[in-house]
Specification:
about 675 residues, mainly alpha
Length: about 675
């Protein structure tokens, strides 16, 4: 039994999904598209799965999320739909509900945030609304796990009984006539395609091209449908899409007039207005955001983060020392000892040492996201982004890019403007992803131990500044056009749940550890091999004579003007294309730093403080990993355009690092 969980953005869908599945969920992409899906078994029920569909506002095919959700519902036909509705914004949320009812599938509505509804003094006659709509409705408060057991019980019951909506004909007059006339025309084709005739008819009125193609509507039928739609619009004095929208909202207004009694705004909404008067202030909002991020970086890379990182690093080092002693006592061959200690454990261990600060950063970012603050950041940045030809929508993938470039590049699919989408994909890698944190942690510990948070904050700000300049450059050269209007819902501020924050951290920890023992493990073995043998495949006494050294020397002159012309630095940048964390593991292997404590003096011997800053700037901005390159190619639909993006990012990185190093030398910081 499979349930499809669907609802508007910010309706509490993720919270409900986590309550239903806990941490036992599988993350992947929907077949054929790069939109993430989550699926997992419902706790306590055998053979019952729930799939979390993207948050959407309608079933119109305008964004990839809407297309994905519609395809799952129309083609996969889940046993039941769980429609989660934000009860504090019930009128807007019910718009999607009416569309879902037209599908003719079993459906149950979860009225979420009922605790806030009660606080505001608003009352909803759920029994009357349920009777009017003809579908089961269950009041819940997902963040408190209230009503969730009753919801899943009734969902299973609805699915077993195949209880489809009892009635869904809410149209009147001209719209009613048009829907039913077209439904008769396409009835046989709709049933052959496994669709409800009314749903198909409604979509054809809206001018839904994918529906026309799916049904195989002939030119003659298109002509007849066109005449019916023209008659409807002439009668109503509006366009075809507005007619359907007006029909649905007129019914919703009538329904809520009978069943919803509002006496005021909830405490959460009142609290949000007060907070927004400060956090979205015309002049204070951006300085506050910078201050918030600086505080997070101070806690992550300052005394607290350093203490945790040092403690975890000591555990990793003791583990490596234990394995080293075991292999020595076992008298294994020198090459195998070197592979395990100097290759695998030095590479993987150097990256694992930075797990605590990474988890701390994602802990804070998860809190900002769950409270609703990140949506405000996109809102306040719209004014600045519009001056360079983008809109606040473009900030969403960039904010996601602070976690990982791959999902951020995928998130650009939600942008309505083609030029905005392409520019955003070009800019995402300038945002400092989580994979770069081990590089920052290693270099700040070696060169700026007392100003680590300041240096990291500076890198994040620099990434944003470079992205702004690059956006202006691209908008006025390769991707000319005007930004689309910015519309975004600002959810009420809410306290994040401990469970959601912990699940988010656990997801990131699993992802990081998986990368450490897959990509970084493999890269460490390859690096060790290339660093141990020469072109005749003889073991070298000095790694300067190795295969890796000869490759590194070929490209080292490119980076000499930036202050780090050593072949080991250039080699680390190449291996960083597999995963940015491997920059640290490569430097550990190449410098022979088998422990985290040994890495600091090794880096100090390889870089000066100024060249270390230049290296950090370059790693911040240059082309992302191969996984991001693959995502870029898929999203842009062109390998040549994807390579152009990589070349543009690396050229920007080289130019900015050159300016930083040259300016630093002029100031006598050499």
């Amino acid at each position: 039994m499979v349930f499809a969980l669907i609802g508007n953005q910010n309706s509490g869908k993720t919270t409900l999904f986590n309550q239903l599945t806990g941490s036992n969920q599988h993350v992947g992409n929907f077949p054929g598209v790069t939109v993430e899906k989550k699926m997992g078994p419902v706790k306590g029920l055998k053979d019952v799965q729930v799939v979390d569909l993207p948050g959407i506002y309608s079933l119109s095919p305008y964004t990839s999320e809407e297309l994905v959700s519609r395809d799952v519902l129309l083609k996969d036909k889940p046993d039941a739909i769980i429609d989660i509705v934000d009860a504090t914004n019930i009128e807007r949320n019910l718009y999607l509900t009416l569309q879902l009812m037209e599908l003719g599938l079993p459906i149950i509505v979860a009225l979420n945030m009922m605790d806030e509804v009660r606080e505001s003094g608003t009352t909803i006659d759920i029994a009357a609304m349920e009777k009017e709509l003809g579908i089961p409705m269950v009041p819940i408060a997902a963040n408190k796990n209230e009503g969730v057991d009753e919801l899943i019980r009734r969902a299973v019951e609805t699915a077993k009984n195949r209880a489809v909506p009892e009635h869904f004909d809410f149209c009147t007059q001209a719209v009613h006539k048009a829907i039913h006339s077209i439904a008769h025309i396409v009835e046989e084709k709709a049933k052959a395609a496994g669709l409800a005739p009314r749903f198909a008819s409604t979509k054809l009125i809206e001018g839904d091209a994918p529906m026309e193609e799916l049904l195989g509507v002939s030119e003659v039928e298109k002509d007849i449908i066109g005449h019916i739609v023209d008659e409807m619009t002439d009668t109503l004095g509006t366009d075809r899409e507005a007619a359907i929208v007006d029909m649905r909202y007129s019914y919703i207004e009538e329904l809520c007039g009978k069943t919803v009694k509002k006496t005021g705004e909830s405490k959460a909404q009142q609290r949000s207005y007060r907070i927004d008067s400060v956090l979205t202030h015309k002049y204070l909002s951006i300085p506050i955001f910078i201050g918030v991020m600086a505080t997070i970086f101070y806690l992550t890379f300052g005394p607290v983060g350093t203490y945790l990182a040092d403690g975890f690093s000591a555990l990793v080092d003791s583990g490596i020392a234990y394995v080293d002693g075991f292999l020595t006592a076992a008298a294994v061959s020198d090459w195998l000892h070197s592979l395990v200690i100097d290759g695998i454990l030095a590479g993987v261990g150097s990256v694992l040492s930075f797990l605590p600060p990474i988890l701390m950063l994602f802990f804070f970012l998860s809190i900002l996201e769950d409270t609703g603050y990140m949506a405000r950041v996109a809102f306040v940045m719209d004014r600045l982004l519009r001056k360079i030809g983008l809109s606040g929508h473009s900030l969403v993938p960039m904010l996601v890019g602070f976690g990982c470039s791959v999902p951020a590049i995928m998130a650009a699919r939600t942008l309505y403007s083609e030029s905005d989408r392409k520019i955003s994909i070009f800019l995402v890698p300038f945002m400092s992803c989580g994979a770069k944190l081990p590089i920052y942690a290693a270099f700040t510990a070696a060169f700026f131990p007392h100003n680590a948070s300041l240096v990291v904050t500076g890198l994040y700000v620099l990434g944003v500044i470079v992205a702004i300049f690059a956006a202006w450059l691209l908008r006025n050269t390769a991707f000319k056009g005007n930004p689309v209007p910015f519309i975004m819902e600002l959810p009420a501020y809410r306290f994040p749940t401990v469970k959601n924050v912990m699940l988010h951290m656990w997801d990131k920890a699993k992802e990081f550890i998986k990368r450490a023992f897959t990509i970084i493990f493999a890269a460490s073995v390859v690096i060790w091999f290339l660093n141990t043998f020469n072109w005749q495949f003889n073991i070298v006494a000095d790694n300067a004579d190795s295969i890796l050294a000869s490759i590194g020397r070929l490209i080292a002159p490119i980076f000499a003007p930036l202050g780090f012309g050593d072949w080991r630095a250039s080699t680390a940048l190449i291996t960083g294309l597999t995963a940015k964390e491997t920059v640290v593991s490569t430097l550990s292997v190449l410098t022979g730093a088998t422990s985290d404590a040994a890495l600091t003096p090794a880096l100090q011997g390889l870089f000066s403080p100024l060249s270390a800053v230049s290296f950090l700037v370059f790693t911040l901005l240059y082309m992302p990993c191969v996984a991001a390159l693959s995502a870029t190619r898929k999203e842009l639909g062109s390998g040549r355009l994807a390579l152009s993006a990589m070349a543009f990012q690396t050229a920007m990185a080289w130019a900015v690092a050159l300016v930083v190093f040259t300016f630093g030398k002029l100031l006598g910081l050499g």
